[in-house]
């Protein structure tokens, strides 16, 4: 067992700690989320990737016993609909907090996608007043619902955070960002190239609309480490706007910029796998 001083040295050597990231967001379809208890941060968020991947009650309870647990719950999805089927809420420990989101279309069926968001945000907030609110695509609804505003990192995050603070918003602002803790450009593109290519400003800038144009890629240029020319230039720049990439020290500088702009929490998703946050 490590002594206190030895533990601090070990933590200082961890790239996630050196990067200054507050919390980790894990995807249950990609990793064993029980490994969250070994992460060197107090807060862990479990993303939603469909009902079939949602962890069972025992798994969530085991994580909540060791960490401050946040669970993403799409208010339009069956199982989390506060105006309909909310049966999956029984799996979430009382001590955990919810991340209320509208729900990504990839994980919703046609009926779920057609459901109104505003009344569901309102009802869910009444049931979980300490919940964070996902803002992507529904910024005004999220702000109206109140609570911690949970945003995706973008080119405008610093400006938006400053504007919220200037307007008198005194609640928490949390930012989610795919993260790659290396300055190896091939590793960066393998980790977040496809993700950033789907962000609308990036998709428009890519030759032939890039992979983000239709979500399929087709004959569009590759968006990973094999990307070349103009595609590679666009993706490399976009990775710095829409993700946290670079050495841990470089990422820390970006995290500190976000804090200076008014961001309270920075949540990193390990785009190259959970091992990068555990090493």
TrEMBL record:
Oxidoreductase listed as a keyword: yes
GO function terms (MF aspect): monooxygenase activity; oxidoreductase activity, acting on paired donors, with incorporation or reduction of molecular oxygen
Keywords of this entry: Monooxygenase, Oxidoreductase
Keyword Transit peptide part of the UniProt annotation: no
Record Pfam families: DUF7388
Segments of this protein annotated with the region Disordered: 203-227
Matching InterPro entries: DUF7388, Luciferase-like_sf
Protein name per its UniProtKB record: Luciferase-like monooxygenase
Taxonomic lineage of the native organism: Archaea, Methanobacteriati, Methanobacteriota, Stenosarchaea group, Halobacteria
